[in-house]
Amino acid sequence: MKIKSALLTSLMFVFVLTLTSNLYANSGGLNVGDKAPHFSAHDQEGNKVTLKDLLAEGDVILVFYRGQWCPICNRHLKAVQDSLELLTQNGAFVIGISPEKQEYLQKSSQKSGASYPLLYDRDYSMMKAYKVVYSPDSEEQDMYNKRLDANFQIAHDNDEVFLPVPATYIINSNGEIVFAHYDTDYRQRTSVREMLPYLSDN
């Protein structure tokens, strides 16, 4: 049974990667050297967070993730949380960004232990500005809703469903992107070790 389950999981990954291979026309990510688009949004506790205010204090690490339903996202958020003290000691603020509204951000925080702000990208404007947005077709949406309880129509509070390609950006105090990781294979995530050399205080 375990072998059969592992095989089905592997086939599901291959199916999704194939299914979404041509859905990234409006995506591609920003590049190192680009100016980071400013934003203002509310976190899981309802607090307003602005990039401008954070940059006045130091570097900002942006982590775009798909939602509380995504186990790989939760593991990545937890890995960042586990090294949060190391990141803050090097002068960085960590921000997670998701298209899910507040109660679902709280679920992400509970599942991953993330104590840093998780922001609700209500109208997908941040995802679009950072060029990480893509549109899952009905088959992909149906699969995530049924298998992982994504609940898109309620969690996103939006008639249209968009997701971010999981991506990580490091922005220095001048508002310039100094590190960018973008990969349409959602299993590929940035490690804290990869981030550290790009922080100003390191």
How would you portray this structure in words?
The protein is of the alpha/beta class. The protein has helices at residues 2-19, 51-55, 71-82, 84-89, 102-112, 125-129, 138-148, 152-155, 192-195; strands at residues 40-42, 48-50, 59-64, 92-98, 118-120, 133-134, 163-164, 167-171, 177-182. The termini are far apart. Mean pLDDT is 89; it is low at 13-22.
H/E element string?
HEEHEHHEHEHEHHEEEH
Structural class: alpha/beta
- The level of helicity is 25-40%
Strand order of the biggest β-sheet: 5-4-3-8-9
- How large is the radius of gyration? 16 Å
Distance between the termini: 48 Å
What integer is the average pLDDT? 89
Shape: globular
List unreliable stretches of 5+ residues: 13-22
Biggest beta-sheet profile:
5 strands, mixed
DSSP summary, beta strand count: 9
Characteristics:
five-stranded mixed beta sheet, two-stranded antiparallel sheet, 202 residues
Helix and strand topology:
Blueprint: H1 2-19, E1 40-42, E2 48-50, H2 51-55, E3 59-64, H3 71-82, H4 84-89, E4 92-98, H5 102-112, E5 118-120, H6 125-129, E6 133-134, H7 138-148, H8 152-155, E7 163-164, E8 167-171, E9 177-182, H9 192-195
Parallel strand pairs: 3-4, 4-5
Antiparallel strand pairs: 1-2, 3-8, 6-7, 8-9
